[in-house]
Design goal:
Blueprint (H helix, E strand, L loop, with lengths): L9 H8 L2 E4 L13 H13 L5 E8 L2 E8 L10 H16 L4 E4 L10 H5 L1 H14 L4 E5 L3 E2 H4 L8 E4 L5 E2 L3 H8 L10 H6 L5 E2 L5 H12 L29 H9 L9 H8 L1 E6 L11 E8 L2 E8 L1 H5 L6 H17 L3 E7 L6 H5 L2 H14 L4 E9 L1 H5 L6 E5 L9 H9 L5 H7 L4 H6 L5 E3 L9 H20 L7
Helix pairs in contact: 3-5, 5-15, 7-17, 10-18, 11-20, 13-15, 17-18
Amino acid sequence: MVGPGGRVGARELLRRVLDEHQSWDVEPRSVAEPGSAYARELAAARERSGCDEAVLTGEGLLRGRRIAYVVSEFGFLAGSIGVATADRIVAAMERATAEGLPLVAAPSSGGTRMQEGTVAFVQMARITAAVARHRAAGLPYLVYLRHPTTGGVFASWGSLGHVTAAEPGALIGFLGPRVYEGLYGKPFPEGVQVAENLFAKGLIDAVVGIDDLPEIAADALEVLASRPCPASPPPVGSRRVRTPSWREVPSGGGEDGQEVFGRARRDGRPGVRELLKFGADTVTPMSGTGQGEADPGLLLALARFGGVPCVVVGQDRRSQRRGHLLGPAGLRVARRGMGLAGELGLPLVTVVDTPGADLSAEAEEGGLAGEIARCMADLIALPVPAVCLLMGEGAGGAALALLPADRVLAARHSWLAPLPPEGASVIMYRTAGRAAEAAVAQRIGASELLSDGLVDELVEERPDAADEPEAFCRRAAAAIGNALSALTGRPGRGS
C-alpha cells in the first residue's frame, strides 16, 4: 500500500499499473527567459526529477485494454501546471478523444504554477474543456488522486472522472494547508483533506492502493468502455477557452503593486446588485438551487441589458464581504442558472467579484472543488452565448468557475489571480507580506489581462467605481448589452 510517506513517481506508477506503455510526449515549448530565475528552476526540476515537465502522457495496455494516460510527476516543481504542462495534457486528451481511447488520469499536484501567474491559472479552463470534449464523445475518464492533489488541479481535471479513486492517506483538498495557515495563522482542521474522509463523505468512489488499482480500473472499464448505444457528442464551447501566450515579467515594483488589487477591495465599490439596479431592466430575482439549497454569496436573476433578455449569475460582493463566502451550494445555484439559460435559449451573463471561495472544512466536505470543476465544464459546454464581467476581485477557483465566456469584459481596477495576492506571496516568498510584489509579478490586473488576451474590453472607472457607482454601473451595463447584441444578433438599445 502506498501512502504519503512513500510517494511513487510517475514512471514507477506506470510500471506498476500498466502492462506496457509508450510516450506521446514531445519537447515542451520554452516559457522562461534564458538565464532567468525561472529558467534555472526549470533546469533544476528536470535534473532532480528526470522528467522534462510535470506530467507524462502516452498510451498503454491496462489488463490488455488500450488506454491513454496523463500522470503527474510531483518531483517536477510540485507537479504544478504551467502553460507548457497544459499544452501536453490537452494534446494527450485530444489525441485520446480522436483515437476513441479511455483516459486514465493520475494527478499529484499543488495546482497552478505560481511563477507563471494568471496566464497559467486560466489553463485549468483549457484542460477542463478537453475533458468535457472527451466525455461528450462518450469515452470513459478515470481519475486516481495521488498524494497530494490540491488547488486548481483538484478543482478541474481531478474532479471530473466518471469514476474517481484515491491513494490511501493522500492529502486531497481545494486549498493547500501551508497556504491556509499562511493566510489565517492556524492549521486547517485535521482529518478533513484526506482520501478516507472524502470517501466517507461520498466525494470519491474508492480508496485504492496502487497495486490494486489495475484490477479495479480494468473492471470499471469493462462496463464504461462497452457502449451498446454509441454517444452522439454535443458541441462543446471551446471557443470560450483562451490560450494566451506566457511571457516572463521581471519581479519587483512591489511599491505600486498594492494599487493593482487594492482598489477592487474598496468600501463602497458597486457589485452585481448595483449593476442590476442601475443598469438592467425587468429584473426578476431567483433563489437557490430549487432543490433545498441557497447561498447568499451568489445571485441568480432574469434581466435585460440593452433590451436583450438574459440569465444573470453573479457573485454578490456585499454578502461575501459580510462573511458569506461562496461555497458548494452557491456553485450549484450558478449551475441552475446555466441550465435555465441552455433550456430556454437565453444568453448567460456571469459577474465575477469574489475574494475567494469558502475555505472551511464544511465546504471541502461539501464538494467545493468538484462543484468548481463542474461549473466550469457546464459553462464551457453551454449551447447559448455567454458574457462575463470581471467586476472587482477575482480570486482563485471561485472566479475561474464563472470566467469562460464568448466575451469577457473587465472593470479597469478589477483583477484575476490563482490566489489572493497574500496567498500567492506565501507560496512565492514564504510570507504574506509581499502581496503587492506578487500581484505585479503575476500580471493579475485588468490592463495586463487585456494585453495577455484574457479580456476583450475594459470598462473605464472615472477615476474609481467606488466614487461613481451609478455611472460606472450604467457603463458596464451598456457594455454587456452591446456584447449580448453582437453575440445574439438581436438589436439592442442603450441602457
